[in-house]
Design a protein that fits this description.
The structure holds 2 protein chains of 2 kinds.
Chain A: E1 2-11, E2 14-24, E3 29-34, H1 40-47, E4 55-60, E5 63-64, H2 69-74, E6 76-79, H3 91-101, H4 106-119, H5 135-147, E7 153-157, H6 165-180, E8 184-188, H7 192-198, E9 201-206, E10 209-214, H8 216-223, H9 237-248
Parallel strand pairs in A: 3-8, 3-9, 6-7, 7-8
Antiparallel strand pairs in A: 1-2, 1-4, 4-5, 9-10
Helix pairs in contact in A: 3-4, 8-9
Chain B: H1 5-21, H2 23-50, H3 56-90, H4 93-98, H5 104-134, H6 143-170, H7 174-200, H8 207-228, H9 231-236, H10 244-258, H11 262-268, H12 270-293, H13 296-310, H14 315-337, H15 343-362, H16 365-371, H17 376-397, H18 406-437
Helix pairs in contact in B: 1-5, 2-3, 2-5, 3-5, 3-6, 3-7, 5-6, 6-7, 6-8, 10-18, 12-15, 12-17, 14-15, 14-17, 14-18, 15-16, 15-17, 17-18
Classes of the chains: A alpha/beta, B mainly alpha.
C-alpha cells in the first residue's frame, strides 16, 4: 500500500527528513516514535502528498506522490496534530462538507456520519457549533473527518493526545477496525504504551532519520538490550526507545 | 490546470456561509454599506438645496461621493480575504483543506469567488443606495462615469483579494498580515484620491484609463496569487523561519557570486534587454507626437532657463555631471524596479528616446540624432542592458512559483544588476567623456 524509497525533505537549509525508506502492506500498522522535531510530522505530510519529497519517492497504492499528488491525497486520510476545525460550523455540517469534497453521495455521507458520531459519543452534539467543543471532542471530529471516505491509508499524528482513556480506547478500536478492513495505518505518538499495544511495526526517528524499524523483538535486538545484564528478559518499548534514541540522538535535525 | 468547478463552488459556498454567518460582522458591513451612502447622498442633496442649486462643482462632488461610497465596502474585501487565507492558515484549517483531494486552484478560486461575491454585493449595494438617495430629481445622472466606476471596482476588489493571497503566502499570523496589507490598501487609497482629483478637475474620461490599469493590476496579482498558492509554499515556510536577515544576506552574496558577467549575462537576459532597447524608438515616437501637445514655444523657455541655470561648465565638470546623472538614473531604476514591476527598466530608454523624438519634432530627425552622437552609441546600449536587468527584477517580483523562493529570486535579479554595474560604470564614464569632449552640445 505504501512504498517509500530514500525520501528526503529539506526546508531551505534545514534537512527535516533524510533517506527514509519503508514499506507498508494493506492491513498493517506502523507506529512512528521520536522526540519533538524528529521529523515525524514532515514525514506524514510527505507520505500524504501534502508536501513533495526533495529526493526519493513515495508511492501510495502504486501512485507516485510527485506525479499524481491529487490521486495520492484521495487515497489518504490525514489526522493532523492540530484538529483544524471550522468553529462556526455544526459538527454534522462540517463532516458533510468534507464528505462532499471526497465525492461521497448523500446517503453514504449521512449513514457514515451518523454511525461515527454515535461511535464517538457525539451524536447529541451533531448540531452544535464546533467552536463549543472540548479539545477531546475536536480530536474525535478530526479523526472522523479524515476517515470518512474510508481511505486505504490512514496517517495519524498523535490522534489520541487530547482524549481521555475511555475515548482513547474507542479511537484505537476504531483505527483497529479500519486496519482490519484493509487500511494501512501510520501513527505518530509519544504514548509508548499505546504504541506497544498496537502490535505492528515500530519506527524510531531522530534528527530526520529513521534509526530503527521493525517489530519490538527486532528493535530490542537492534538496541542490544538483551546483552546487558541489568535489563530484564523482556524489555519494554520505553527501554528500547531510550536505548536507540540515546545512540542516535546526536543526529538532531541540522543544516546539511 | 484542470479545475472541478463543483468543488471550487463547494469551497466558495462554505466560505460565503462562514463570512455571512458571522452576524455581528455581517450587520456591521451591511450597516456601513447602507448608512454611509445615505449620509453621503443626503449631504449632496443638502448642498444642492442650501448651496444655491445644482452647479458644476456639485455635480463633480456627487461623482466623487460615489467613488468614496464604493471604496469603503471594497476595502472589506481585504479583511475578508485575509481572514479567509491567513486566518485559516493560522488556525490550521487551511492545512486540513489542503490535505484533501482538492486541487490548489479549486481552493484558490473558491475562496477568491466567495470574497468577491460578498464584497461586490456590498459595493454595488452601496452604490445603488447612494444613487437612489442622491440623483432623483437633480436632473442629471452620470451613467458613463458610474459604469467606469463599476468596472474599476470589480478589478480593485479582485486586486485586493489577490494581494491578500500573496500576503497570506508570506505571513504566518494575522498580525503580520495586517501590517503587510498596508502595502495593498495604501496604494488603493492613493488611486482613489487621484480618481477624485481627476473628477474634480473635470477629466472624468481618464477614469477609463484607471479602470484599464486596475484590470491589468488585478490580472497580474490574481496570476501571482494562483502561482504562490501552493501546498509546498504554504506549509514548507512554516519551517526555517529563523535568521531571515542572515539568510537574505547569504542569498544575496550567493546570487552575486553566481551572477554571470558580460556577454553571458546579455545572452541570458536577451529578451528583457531587447524589450528595453525597443522602448527607445517607442519613446522617440511618443516624444515626437508629444510635440503636438507641448509645442516648442512652451517647452523652449523652460529648457533655456534650465540650461542657463547649469551655466557653461568646463568639459571635465560636464563629464562628471553627465556620468553621475546616468549612473543615478540606472541605480534609481534598479531600486524602484521591484515596486514598479519593471516599469523603470522601460523608462530608462523610453525617456531619452522621448527627448530625441521631441527634439526631432521641433527640428529634424537628423539634427536630433546628431545631438546624441557619438556618446549615444555607448549610453543607449548601456541603458538598454541596465533597463533589461531592471525589467527582469520587476518580472521576478511578480513571479511566484509553487515552491516559493520569491525573496531568493528577487535578490538574485538585483545581484545581476549590481554585478553588471562593474562593467557598465566604466562604459558610462567613457560615454560621459565622449559627450563632454567630442559631442557638439546645443547651447
Amino acid at each position: 500500500m505504501l512504498e517509500v524509497e530514500g525520501l528526503a525533505k529539506r526546508y531551505g537549509e534545514v534537512v527535516a527528513i533524510r533517506d527514509l525508506s519503508l514499506h507498508l502492506d494493506a492491513g498493517s500498522t506502523l507506529v512512528l516514535l521520536g522526540q519533538n522535531g524528529a521529523g515525524k510530522t514532515t514525514a506524514l505530510r510527505c507520505l500524504s502528498g501534502l508536501l513533495l519529497p526533495t529526493a526519493g519517492r513515495v508511492l501510495v497504492g502504486g501512485r507516485d506522490s510527485a506525479l499524481e499528488p491529487d490521486a495520492v491525497r484521495a487515497q489518504v486520510g490525514l489526522v493532523p496534530e492540530v484538529p483544524g476545525l471550522y468553529d462556526r460550523m455544526p459538527a454534522r455540517g462540517y463532516l458533510d462538507f468534507f464528505g462532499r469534497i471526497y465525492g461521497l453521495d448523500e446517503a453514504t455521507r449521512s449513514r457514515r456520519i451518523g454511525r461515527l458520531l454515535e461511535l464517538f459519543d457525539l451524536a447529541d452534539a451533531g448540531e452544535r457549533w464546533l467552536g463549543s467543543f472540548s479539545k477531546g471532542m475536536r480530536q474525535k471530529v478530526a479523526l472522523i473527518r479524515a476517515t470518512l471516505h474510508r481511505p486505504p491509508l490512514v496517517l495519524a499524528d498523535e490522534p489520541t493526545s487530547a482524549l481521555d482513556p475511555d475515548s482513547s480506547r474507542v479511537a484505537w478500536r476504531y483505527l483497529e477496525e479500519l486496519r482490519a478492513d484493509g487500511a494501512a495505518l501510520v501513527v505518530c505518538t509519544h504514548n509508548l504504551e499505546e504504541a506497544q499495544a498496537l502490535a505492528g511495526e515500530i519506527g524510531i526517528m531522530s534528527g530526520g532519520r529513521l534509526l530503527a524499524l521493525g517489530e519490538l523483538q527486532q528493535l530490542t535486538r537492534a538496541a542490544g538490550l538483551k546483552k546487558r545484564r541489568e535489563v530484564v528478559e523482556r524489555p519494554t518499548l520505553e527501554e528500547v526507545y531510550l536505548a536507540i534514541v540515546g545512540n542516535g540522538a546526536e543526529d538532531e535535525a541540522r543544516p546539511a | 490546470m484542470r479545475l472541478d468547478r463543483r468543488k471550487a463552488l463547494l469551497v466558495a459556498e462554505r466560505d460565503f456561509r462562514d463570512a455571512a454567518g458571522d452576524l455581528r460582522l455581517a450587520l456591521a458591513m451591511a450597516g456601513l454599506a447602507i448608512v454611509i451612502p445615505i449620509a453621503a447622498g443626503s449631504g449632496i442633496r443638502a448642498l444642492v438645496l442650501f448651496g444655491g442649486g445644482l452647479s458644476d462643482l456639485v455635480e463633480r462632488v456627487s461623482i466623487v461621493g460615489a467613488f468614496f461610497v464604493v471604496f469603503l465596502p471594497a476595502s472589506y474585501s481585504l479583511v475578508l480575504a485575509l481572514e479567509s487565507f491567513v486566518g485559516e492558515r493560522e488556525r490550521a484549517t487551511l492545512e486540513v483543506l489542503l490535505s484533501t483531494s482538492l486541487k490548489e486552484a479549486e481552493i484558490y478560486v473558491g475562496k477568491v469567488a466567495s470574497v468577491l461575491a460578498i464584497s461586490l454585493f456590498l459595493c454595488f449595494g452601496a452604490l445603488l443606495v447612494y444613487c437612489a438617495v442622491t440623483f432623483p430629481g437633480l436632473g442629471y445622472f452620470p451613467l458613463g462615469v458610474l459604469v467606469s466606476l463599476g468596472v474599476s471596482t470589480i478589478c480593485q476588489v479582485a486586486a485586493m483579494v489577490a494581494g491578500a493571497v500573496i500576503v497570506s503566502a508570506n505571513a504566518r499570523t494575522m498580525r503580520a498580515a495586517n501590517v503587510m496589507a498596508s502595502f495593498i490598501i495604501l496604494p488603493m487609497s492613493i488611486v482613489l484620491q487621484v480618481e477624485a482629483a481627476l473628477i474634480l478637475v473635470g477629466r472624468g474620461e481618464l477614469l477609463w484609463g484607471f479602470a484599464a490599469a486596475m484590470a491589468v493590476g488585478a490580472f497580474i496579482l490574481l496570476r501571482m496569487g494562483l502561482g504562490g498558492f501552493s501546498r509546498e509554499a504554504l506549509l514548507s515556510r512554516d519551517a526555517g523561519t529563523k535568521g531571515r536577515l542572515r539568510r537574505a544576506k547569504r542569498a544575496l552574496a550567493d546570487a552575486y557570486g553566481k551572477a554571470p558577467g558580460g556577454l553571458t549575462l546579455i545572452r541570458a537576459r536577451l529578451v528583457p534587454i531587447l524589450a528595453s532597447l525597443l522602448a527607445f524608438p517607442v519613446g522617440a515616437g511618443l516624444g515626437y507626437l508629444a510635440a503636438g501637445v507641448l509645442p516648442g514655444r512652451v517647452v523652449g523657455p523652460v529648457l533655456s532657463s534650465v540650461l542657463a541655470a547649469a551655466g557653461r561648465p568646463d568639459p571635465a565638470s560636464l563629464a562628471l555631471a553627465v556620468f553621475l546623472h546616468n549612473l543615478l538614473a540606472i541605480v534609481v531604476a534598479g531600486l524602484l524596479a521591484a515596486v514598479t514591476l519593471g516599469l523603470t527598466g522601460y523608462l530608462l530608454t523610453a525617456l531619452p528616446g522621448a527627448l530625441v523624438g521631441y527634439a526631432a519634432a521641433v527640428s529634424s530627425w537628423s539634427l536630433a540624432l546628431t545631438g546624441i552622437l557619438p556618446n549615444g552609441l555607448i549610453e543607449i546600449p548601456v541603458a538598454a542592458i541596465a533597463g533589461g536587468l531592471a525589467i527582469h527584477i520587476g518580472a521576478s517580483a511578480i513571479h511566484m512559483e509553487p515552491d516559493g523562493g520569491w525573496t531568493r529570486r528577487l535578490l538574485g535579479a538585483q545581484a545581476e544588476l549590481a554585478k553588471a554595474l562593474l562593467w557598465l560604470v566604466p562604459l558610462l564614464a567613457i560615454g560621459a567623456l565622449l559627450e563632454a569632449y567630442a559631442a557638439q552640445l546645443p547651447r
